[in-house]
Amino acid sequence: MDRGIGWRIGVAALLVASLGLSGCASLLGRVGSGFGMKAGHDDDVSWAELMRSADRFRDRGDVERALVGYLRALQREPDRPLARVRLAQLQLLSDPERAAEGFRRVLAIAPDEARAWAGLGVASLALGRLEEAREAFSRASQEAPDSALARAGEAVALDLLGRPEEARAALDGALERRPEEAWLINNLAVSRLVARDWEGAETALRTALALDPDDAAARNNLGLALGGQERYAEAYTAFREAGGEQAARNNLGYVLFLNGHYDDAVREYERALATDGDATRAVIANLHTALDAMDAVSDAGEAEIR
After folding, report:
1. Which of 227, 287, 280, 299 is nearest to 258 (CA)?
2. Do 185 and 175 meet the contact criterion of CB atoms below 8 Å apart?
3. HSE of 277 in the Cβ direction (CA atoms, 13 Å)?
4. pLDDT tens digits for 108-145?
5. What is the DSSP letter of 70?
6. CA of residue 74 relative to chain centroid, distance
7. Which residue among 32, 35, 201, 211 has the highest number of C-beta atoms inside a 10 angstrom radius?
């Protein structure tokens, strides 16, 4: 199976999983190095209440007020690491290098802070530092053995490092901690797709979709699992529900191509090109690949005849 299927957990998904955010990720780009807000004074408000208030702003996607709240909490009790962790987390998507520096500063004063190790792992993934990410997530797992995020992050790093068996073991560990997390189950399914375990992937994906029926990525992956079993009508339905007509025809063509049915793949790509959508460029590239494969088969046949 083409590794381009990828793992569902990216940097953003790990961030959302670690913080439980909803609208925050789309606003993180507003947080930069020159924010310039004054921390202010809240002598009658406890550190814990400042943190709770900032967390509420963060959960609502109000990054600016969350930032101010964490700065005030940090000013109140500079030796407590959590506010520093939260400030670094806010920068993960907009500036992962700066976030990594923030997490390292936390770890310099609190080397057993699991959230900082996990955050450093996410930032390192974003920066392409895969071994550093694996080491950070592994350390986070040591400090917080019950953390599903740490094990899932380690699985991503291991997979990208080309160590799929270790990745699946780490993902199994994450699922033991959170057996009803749809995003973890989907990741398990993707590892099974890569291994061409179509039936195992289908079982996992139907479980994930039962937990989150609106998960388009899981539904698209279900189409791949069904296509791998040559259940093409069901695969097409799953693809269409996940991404519309053009994407469905393109994905069905891809599955047919993987199964060696090049003529049928070309027909699906041609149908995709006759349909409006955002995948036209990908369809054209896939069509050329299928046509080249047909030519190669034809040339091989002629060579045998000669």
Report:
1. 227
2. yes
3. 21
4. 999 999 999 999 998 898 888 999 999 999 999 999 98
5. H
6. 31
7. 201
